[in-house]
Amino acid sequence: MSKNKFSLLVIVAFFAAFFVNVETKAQTSSVFVVGLKAPAKIIYAPRQDFFLVSEAGIASVPNSGRVSIITDDGSRYTLIDGLPSGPGATNGASLGPSALWLDGDSLYIAIGNGNATVRGPAPGTEIPNPNPNSPIFSSVLEYNFSPNFFRRGHFGYELSVSDHTRLANGETLFLGGFEQQSATLRLAADFPDFAPSPRPDVPNNVQPSNPFGLVGVGNRLYMADAGQNNIQTAYLRNGRTQVFFAYPPRANPSLTPPAVEAVPSGLRLCGNKLLVTFLTGFPFPAGLADVRQIDLETGAESQLIGGLRMAIDVLPIADEGFCQTFYTLEYMSSATTPTSGRIQHFISPGRQPTVIVNNLAMPTGMALHPNGDLLVTEIFAGRITRISNIP
After folding, report:
1. Which of 32, 94, 112, 366 has the fewest CB atoms inside 10 Å of its own CB, making it the most exposed?
2. Which CATH number does 31-246 carry?
3. Domain boundaries defined on the chain
4. Residue 366 and residue 315: Cα distance in Å, rounded?
């Protein structure tokens, strides 16, 4: 072999080894923020260059819901506190602020069902609560701030119970007072807290609402209702709401029970399509959860990514306006292991995914950092985990 050919082979081998090393660089996970009050969803605010996280609150503390600002160094600042929250009827976990949607200077905050319902007299039943913590559960609040609001530092407002009543009555709150007028808060949409679901043994049984996904398109908001198993629309001009798309129960492959609820758990927007993740109901069969899409122009609905378990969020990555790759988040990938939350990367919907991490503690939302890291909320651990070196 000539010296030139040998040198060429050495160079080729060097670069091959280099690229293999880059491609196989392991993902690293680190705790980014702790001490949160049941963090549900997280979004990035590009104009302000920070993150916003919704916190469902503390079950034993009425109306302890909160939205926090998270900066790049992991510091937390309160944006607004005292938001509606209360223990859910099913397991007593706090239900409060959930999904977030940012449109310019307007932040839309979905509020969960709280304690609008309580356990009924028979197993698996719920009845209306005559004394809920707040009159604005199952709603969307619009938090509107001035362009230099965050520079002035006029945030950190805490709502009172009387503020909840004023919002329910259609008033707009001026946070910080009329003189500063740093931000306003109003009730943008109010969804029914529950729908009648009478049973022979419990005539007043109801099926609760549970807003858990939110995106905006023009003058409309789309809300994923994990309790009613549908996507609802709210018109921002008049607050009118209606069901946009309803999802029936799904056949259970294990046959016990014969069907499970769909449970839409998250919403994303990609071009003119809504992407919807599905948790499904107990016993959360493997492979039954998925990501589905709705074309907002034609109304056509179809599966985008299948074969998941307890899917709770999806993050599309757009290239030249088209969503080419996707990260999926599963609350648990094993129905019996709370620390089996999983993120997978799909180069395309039909390709075999790459597992990024599979040991998260009941994650509920994720956001992409400008540097390519993923930030993930873990609701019961009260923290945000940062995942680096992702493909």
Report:
1. 32
2. 2.120.10
3. 31-246
4. 8
